[in-house]
Amino acid sequence: MKKEQLAVVDAQDKVIEIRDRDEIHRLGLRHRAVHILIFNQKQELFLQKRSPKKDLNAGLWDSSAAGHVDAGEAYKDCITREVHEELGVKLNTAPEFLFQLSPTYENGMEFINVYRSQHNGPFTLCRDEIDQGQWLSSAKISQLVSENAPHLTLTFKSIWTSFITLSKAY
Question: In CATH, what number is assigned to the domain containing residue 92?
Fold first, then answer.
């Protein structure tokens, strides 16, 4: 099986070298990832429960789709690939870039570009990646995040808090 190659980046998100994913995680090196928030026409957010087979955050609820940016891949190309791989759909319009989170130990030392899109499903979930999915209202998600619900990933909690803050600014 071919090892996943990712770009190691500096504090300004500039590529400095390419390494194996496992090595990057083991050494705590900065790298790139994407997350997308997919809302339906009722403005409910689709959350995925990560497969129990995952090496990180197994069995926890997370963004609609997410993943590492492969070496040589652009953020915008990665988000399209991840949505197709994990949810089995192609989005009708390009996802809207919302913001970037800076690397922290809590988010795995990832620069995370966060996107938003609209899709009503149905989805064909990749069972190697996702155990199940569900639609939740923004109010319910905000309640869970404010309660620091242990079944949500730390990264998703951070993304949701930033998303709500950004939404209030408009």
Answer: 3.90.79.10
Domain count within the chain = 1
- Domain of 37 in residue numbering reads as 32-100+108-168
Name the pTM for this structure.
0.94
DSSP line for the chain: -PPPEEEEE-TTS-EEEEEEHHHHHHHT--EEEEEEEEE-TT-PEEEEEEPTT-SSSTT-EE-SEEEEPBTT--HHHHHHHHHHHHH----SSPPEEEEEEPP-TTTTSEEEEEEEEE--------TTTEEEEEEE-HHHHHHHHHTT-TTB-HHHHHHHHHHHHHHHT-
pLDDT in tens, 124-143: 999 999 999 999 999 999 99
